[in-house]
Design goal:
The protein is of the alpha/beta class and 196 residues long. It is 36% helix and 16% strand. Helix 5 packs parallel to helix 8.
């Protein structure tokens, strides 16, 4: 029987930060004070440090960022991290791979359709809709049993579950991913080398 392997979606399988900064750069490029947003410099969920014009010109900047995650552009710009797609194709032969992702009401269905189109090998997707979670809140997943593996970019999600093997996916330091004392993956090549 295959072991369950739960994998987060945003900023773990796909480069959500790159898609968000591309939307921002296209929208604000003609505004006074515009500086190109570099996704590698992302530090917090609201993108305040790299997308400052959202916080200057929008009354509810966090809502605007949430809307970005639900936009057509977001799913058009969404890219796999390097090697992610190929490694997942191999992982499904060894594990019962389950994508477990937090979502907002307006982007949940689009996210599932994107996964279905781009990773048809995945048979099971768990979508947790929490309108105010800012990307975490997976403690409510009781099926994440002790004898399972979990990969996520947010330590709070990892700490909250019973999975026996937990790995933080961390490309760079952010405001939310430094509170983790367990194993870390910094690339999908490393995930393949460890789990295959």
């Amino acid at each position: 029987m295959k072991k369950d392997l739960y994998i987060d979606f945003d900023s773990t399988i796909v480069n959500s930060d790159k898609a968000i900064t591309k939307i921002y750069n296209n929208k604000y490029k003609d505004y006074e004070g515009f500086e190109l947003a570099i996704w590698q410099d992302h530090k917090n969920w609201a993108y305040k440090e790299i997308c400052p014009l959202v916080h200057i010109h929008e009354e509810h900047p966090s809502e605007v960022i949430k809307d970005y995650f639900s936009s057509n552009e977001f799913f058009e710009y969404l890219e796999f991290y390097e090697n992610a797609k190929d490694v997942i194709k191999e992982l499904v032969n060894k594990y019962n791979v389950i994508i477990c992702t937090s979502a907002f009401p307006m982007n949940a269905a689009r996210k599932v359709l994107w996964i279905e189109e781009h990773i048809p090998e995945i048979d099971e997707i768990i979508v947790l809709i929490n309108k105010s979670s800012h990307g975490y809140g997976k403690a409510r997943v009781p099926m994440m049993e002790e004898d399972s593996i979990f990969i996520d970019d947010h330590p709070q999600n990892l700490y909250s579950t019973k999975a026996s093997s937990k790995y933080l996916f961390k490309l760079s330091s952010t405001d939310y991913n430094n509170n983790w004392d367990g194993p870390i993956f910094s690339s999908w090549k490393q995930i393949g080398q460890t789990l295959l």
